[in-house]
């Protein structure tokens, strides 16, 4: 069987109307050898497209690893970089990988062949050479020599100037590029750490300098520079007014005697975004070829004209770059809110199951500056619903979260305090520049202290909490001097610090005991918790984007059937009718009428 629907004879019969010829075993073996993949069978199909006095043929190749067959163009000229949308061995890139075809209907082959002919016609007639620019990185891939070990770059590509940048050699012949030495040190500390207990040291840190050239256009494959001389010719062509300045940057980058293989960076602004790539020299200025050296006749430096005369024929190798800057990692430069979001600083008080997830969601959403506060250490019992893993067992949660998040997002700037909030001077001072405080402690006394300080901070506070079994969760936004949060809680007596009206009612005590002094916990899982932490994080971003004008109360209602299985029920006294709450799995929104001290549903 060719696949679960048709065998080879059925495919052969269908393709006969296209004058198809089934490939011989020897012809199929060529693809097996060249592609190193399992080829099932294939057919040769003539097109009507002439090229160099010859009508081009397709080879329709079925593999074991692809539901939709691949199409190859049969001509020696059809190799990568000669034409757009042509990959190794003449493979045409016709349909995106996410296309789904109805494999039960062989007419999908007719559609594939039709689209292939249409694409090939445009390729041969040079109608889509602009795709070399809009899809630049796909073609540079074939010009690069580091497919497996890409270099890293934490650069601000919003800067449009050509400039000097810092780089540092990593393992596997990779380089890390940053805007300056300070940013390099910051990034290295993040990407090199293994655990908080054994933080990697950057021994004898010495960042080197190279240059980033912001090109005015994306170049075509026939312009990819293969030598220093070809690069200079490209620069002269594209920078007629500041060629001398760019030339000086290149000269400084390649003449450093402490760098065995200098590397330059090129940035291209395409219609689909910015493309950052590298050009690495085969060797540096101290390289000696037989009896000759580039520095012969000069002690330390070469005049710039002599430098390029002697080093002009050094080979350049294309390099692929993995970007680790916030613009790329948070939305691949398409996040329109990012510029606004990353200007804000947020404090998260409490880094347990709720706070750790909220903190990670905020970083993923673009918050760059974060303050984390927690006095507890991570235990094995926390792992099932905490963002941290077993590497951080026995480590303070706030400190561990700092290193965990910074290791994933090198652009993050996180400050941690390994103590519970209790009006400590250092922590209070750190709040002076925050735009939002998120309390996930469920510590009544800490929350009241935050409220007492809010008049000084004049920033919103979000209080996030979870009810038993995570069947309900809360995100309460308290604006300064509104008393919104406290209006929902008992403020005196034996019930002090508890909600006046919980969302869920329970037949039995929900706390579970453990064999320890005062040992008890609320049982809930990571899935149920995820809805609540997402609600808290979303409310945080809404405030950052739009500023809060009202104190609000967001309530997540879990699944009603699960609530009933746990012997719980919805509370009819929370301000909405039971029909609204019946099915659960929704968010209820309320706003606080400060003048009348009442909550109204939105």
From TrEMBL:
List the CDD domains hit by this protein, alphabetically: E1_enzyme_family
The family database entries (SUPFAM superfamilies) matched by this protein are listed as: Activating enzymes of the ubiquitin-like proteins (SSF69572)
Query: Which residue range or ranges hold the THIF-type NAD/FAD binding fold domain?
Result: 336-548
InterPro entries, per the entry = Prok-E2_B_dom (IPR032701), ThiF/MoeB/HesA (IPR045886), ThiF_NAD_FAD-bd (IPR000594), Ubiquitin-activating_enz (IPR035985)
Q: Please give the coiled-coil regions recorded for this protein.
A: none
Q: Which domain of life is it from?
A: Bacteria
Q: State one molecular function term (GO).
A: ubiquitin-like modifier activating enzyme activity
Domain (Prokaryotic E2 family B): residue spans on this chain? 31-146
Q: Which GO terms describe its biological process?
A: cyclic threonylcarbamoyladenosine biosynthetic process
Instruction: Supply the name of the protein.
Output: Uncharacterized protein
Q: Which organism's genome codes for this protein? A: Faucicola osloensis (Moraxella osloensis)
The organism's lineage is:
Bacteria, Pseudomonadati, Pseudomonadota, Gammaproteobacteria, Moraxellales
């Amino acid at each position: 069987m060719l696949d679960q629907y048709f065998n080879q004879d059925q495919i052969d019969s269908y393709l006969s109307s296209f004058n198809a010829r089934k490939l011989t075993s020897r012809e199929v073996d060529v693809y097996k050898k060249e592609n190193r993949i399992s080829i099932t069978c294939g057919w040769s199909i003539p097109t009507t497209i002439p090229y160099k006095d010859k009508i081009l043929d397709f080879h329709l190749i079925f593999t074991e690893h692809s539901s939709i067959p691949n199409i190859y163009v049969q001509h020696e000229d059809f190799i990568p970089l000669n034409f757009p949308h042509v990959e190794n061995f003449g493979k045409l890139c016709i349909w995106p990988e996410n296309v789904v075809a109805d494999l039960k209907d062989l007419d999908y082959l007719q559609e594939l062949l039709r689209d292939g002919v249409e694409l090939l016609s445009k390729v041969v007639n040079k109608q889509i050479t602009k795709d070399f620019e809009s899809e630049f990185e796909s073609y540079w891939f074939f010009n690069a020599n580091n497919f497996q070990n890409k270099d890293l770059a934490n650069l601000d590509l919003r800067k449009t100037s050509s400039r000097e940048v810092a780089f540092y050699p990593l393992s596997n012949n990779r380089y890390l590029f940053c805007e300056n030495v300070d940013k390099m040190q910051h990034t290295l500390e993040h990407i090199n750490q293994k655990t908080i207990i054994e933080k990697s040291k950057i021994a004898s840190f010495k960042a080197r300098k190279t240059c980033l050239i912001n090109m005015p256009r994306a170049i075509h494959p026939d312009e990819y520079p293969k030598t220093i001389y070809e690069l200079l010719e490209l620069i002269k062509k594209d920078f007629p007014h500041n060629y001398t300045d760019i030339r000086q940057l290149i000269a400084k980058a390649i003449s450093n005697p402490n760098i065995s293989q200098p590397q330059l960076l090129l940035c291209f602004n395409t219609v689909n975004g910015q493309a950052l790539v590298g050009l690495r020299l085969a060797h540096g200025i101290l390289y000696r070829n037989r009896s000759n050296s580039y520095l012969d006749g000069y002690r330390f430096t070469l005049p710039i004209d002599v430098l390029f005369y002697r080093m002009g024929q050094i080979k350049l190798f294309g390099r692929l770059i993995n970007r680790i800057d916030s613009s790329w990692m948070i939305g691949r430069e398409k996040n329109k809110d990012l510029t606004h979001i990353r200007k804000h600083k947020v404090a998260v008080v409490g880094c347990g199951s709720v706070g750790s997830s909220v903190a990670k969601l905020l970083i993923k959403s673009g918050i760059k500056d974060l303050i984390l506060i927690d006095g507890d250490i991570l235990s094995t019992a926390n792992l099932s619903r905490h963002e941290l893993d077993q590497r951080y067992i026995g480590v303070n949660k706030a400190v561990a979260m700092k290193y965990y998040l910074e290791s994933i997002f090198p652009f993050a700037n996180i400050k941690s305090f390994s103590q519970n909030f209790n009006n400590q001077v250092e922590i209070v001072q750190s709040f002076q520049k925050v735009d939002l405080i998120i309390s996930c402690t469920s510590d009544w006394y800490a929350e009241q202290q935050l409220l007492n300080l809010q008049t000084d901070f004049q920033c919103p506070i979000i209080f996030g909490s979870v009810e038993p079994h995570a069947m309900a969760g809360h995100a309460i936004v308290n604006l300064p001097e509104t008393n919104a949060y406290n209006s929902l809680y008992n403020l005196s007596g034996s019930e002090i610090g508890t909600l006046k009206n919980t969302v869920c009612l329970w037949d039995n005590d929900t706390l579970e005991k453990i064999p320890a002094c005062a040992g008890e916990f609320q049982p809930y899982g990571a899935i149920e918790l995820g809805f609540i932490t997402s609600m808290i994080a979303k409310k945080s971003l809404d405030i950052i984007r739009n500023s809060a004008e009202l104190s609000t109360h967001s309530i997540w209602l879990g699944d009603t059937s699960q609530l009933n299985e746990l012997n719980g029920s919805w509370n009819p006294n929370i301000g909405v009718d039971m029909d609204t709450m019946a099915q659960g799995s929704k968010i209820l929104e309320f706003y606080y009428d400060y003048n009348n001290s009442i909550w109204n549903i939105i």
